[in-house]
Amino acid sequence: MGDSLGLLKVTVVQGKRLVIRDFKSSDPYVVVKLGNQVAKTKVINSCLNPVWNEELSFFLNEPIGVLNLEVFDKDFLKTDDKMGHAHVSLQPIVSAARLRQILRVSSGETTLRKVVPDSDNCLVRESCITCVDGEVVQSVWLRLCDVESGEIELKIKLTDAPDPDATSG
């Protein structure tokens, strides 16, 4: 493992226009992966526009990875059905966090960077990375891949790891 860059808090906010995998609806849940770390949301029964508002936490280390997510339909008698997947590069939020430290931004709200949809992410639209009272935050809508429709909203927050130099002296 490389150097620790901090704690990454990913809030899976909601989904919209998810695909039907059961008779009339689906029972979606989201699996979020960062390297070998995995977390998942609760299942929302019979809903194609679910609201989770669940915060999942990951340790972010060098080398900076990609946040991957997969949406599944919970089935009780057979394997869960895939409802799409998406990814977003964490490099922009890490770069913005480094910029925040250089600029010593700690209060108020400051836009640090804009991220546009490209091959490194599944963004639906442009996303701003802001510093809100010392925390670096990015809100994104991700388009699900390999399915007819579906989007997932995430709020990504990077908080500083404890500074080992702060205790020595």
TrEMBL record:
Pfam families: C2 (PF00168)
Domain C2: 1-103
Main location class: membrane
Compartments, record wording: Cell membrane; Nucleus
InterPro entries tied to this protein: C2_dom, C2_domain_sf, CAR1-11
SMART domains: C2 (SM00239)
Keyword flag Calcium: yes
Entry keyword annotation includes Metal-binding: yes
GO molecular function: GTPase activator activity; lipid binding; metal ion binding
GO BP annotations listed: abscisic acid-activated signaling pathway
PROSITE patterns linked to this entry: C2 (PS50004)
Assigned protein family: Belongs to the plant CAR protein family.
Name this polypeptide is given: C2 domain-containing protein
Highest classification ranks of the organism: Eukaryota, Viridiplantae, Streptophyta, Embryophyta, Tracheophyta
